[in-house]
Amino acid sequence: MNQSVFRLTLPILFGYLPLGMAFGVLFTTQLDYPWWAAPAMGILIYAGAGQILAVSLLAAQAGLLEVFVAMFVLNARHLFYGLSLLGQFHGAGWRKAYLIFGLTDETYSLLTSRARSADRPHEQVLDFRITLFNQCYWVAGCALGALLGANVAFNSTGIEFALVALFIVLTIEQYKALGDAFPVMVGAAAAALAILVLPPAHQLIGAIVVVSVVLLLQYRKLRRNPATEGAGHG
Amino acid sequence: MADTWYLAGFIAVAAAATFATRVIPFLFFQRHTEHPLVRHLGRYLPAAVMALLATVFLQRSASWHSTLPGFDALIPAALVVAVHLWRRNALLSIASGTIAYMAILQLNLIQV
What sections of the protein cross the membrane (chain A) (predicted)? Predict the structure, then answer.
């Protein structure tokens, strides 16, 4: 069974090892904390983009309320992953808590796309092992990168741009999946507004509030004119 | 020592926030999966948040008081977009943009 799980999760290994290493290198080159805190974050937080964002929040000594809001909103897409797995995880017992904890983008896409038999308890054990294997790859990447960053001397000035590059890539992926540029423009415009009128410490939260309000207004507008739903948004 | 406590608190809060986004649907949404507002936010929120984060952190990595304001970050950002549209390989896109930004900063390619 473990061999087939390994084969299933091999693509995730190739994605998680380098991205985890990027986080680890960022962590030890940008911050003054011990290297093992990086794999510890991989074990306890387990979120790719979230942990990379965490490096810049740690560097800025961000307040814990801001940390909570920023991490929650960055991972808000996970709120909608669970919706499609409510049935699949039902009755998984003690494994269910870990299945929910380990529901990253990559694990979600694997669990929702793989072929499943009618034997639900067996499939849940498989889901559990897939989730566990994936987290092991991630933690190994975090540890390797952190050790590399702490022990290999190189000029890391500018390496923090990896965070910006990651968000640009995720924006393009979201746009392609959606086929609608409206939310991308709302997000960028809200950020620009926040940058212009708010001090840096409050820009993230401010922009998030603006985005939420605009999406709620758009929702109300669509509810009033259901005919325009699915059509282009101006 | 204070720093260690800050790090511990930070990890606890970040872990709680991340876990909250994953567990909330299982706690509260069991009966609301078909609610149109939930579906609306599920459709549009992720793209808006990613664009928001990309914009905020792009602005922060640029220097706006040089002779070519913002170019040090806008050129690598354009490279990320181009490489990603071309090959659609996330790691390749991230690596090329980051290396370009590091080169611009370290070799002072854009005169400040």
Answer: 12-29, 35-60, 67-89, 137-170, 203-219
Q: How far apart are CA B21 and CA B25, in angstroms?
A: 8
The whole-angstrom separation of Cα A10 and Cα A192 is: 40
**Amino acid in position A206:** G
Q: Could you give the dihedral angle defined by the CA atoms of residues A170, A173, A178 and A179, in that order, rounded to the nearest 10 degrees?
A: 130
Angle between helices A2-30 and A48-59 (to 10 degrees): 10
User: What is the rounded distance in angstroms from the CA atom of residue B98 to the CA atom of residue B104?
Assistant: 10
Q: Select the residue of A76, A169, A188 nearest B21 (Cβ to Cβ).
A: A76
Using CA coordinates, name the residue in chain B closest to A65.
B13
Mean per-residue pLDDT over chain B, rounded: 89
**Residue closest to B72 by CA, chosen among B82, B61, B80:** B61
CA A36 to chain centre: 21
CA distances from B87 to A128, A169, A225, B94 (A): 32, 12, 39, 12
CA distance A66 to chain B (A): 10
| A30 backbone dihedrals φ, ψ, rounded to 5° | -95, -25
- pLDDT tens for A128-182 read 999 999 999 999 999 999 999 999 877 888 888 988 998 899 899 889 988 999 9
Digit-coded pLDDT (tens) for A106-128:
888 788 778 788 888 899 999 99
The pTM of the full predicted model, rounded to 2 decimals, is 0.80
**How close A52 comes to chain B (CA, Å)?**
12
**Structural domain spans, chain A:** 2-159, 180-234
Find where tokens 């074990």 sit. Answer: A43
Q: Is residue A205 within a helix (H) or strand (E), and if so which, with residue range?
A: helix A200-224
Closest to B94 (Cα-Cα) out of A78, A45, A191, A18: A18
- Look at residue A233 and tell me whether its pLDDT is greater than 50: no
Q: Burial, A125: exposed, middle or buried (Cβ in 10 Å; 0-12, 13-18, 19+)?
A: middle
**Pick from A44-48, A70-74, A153-157, A166-170: least confident:** A153-157
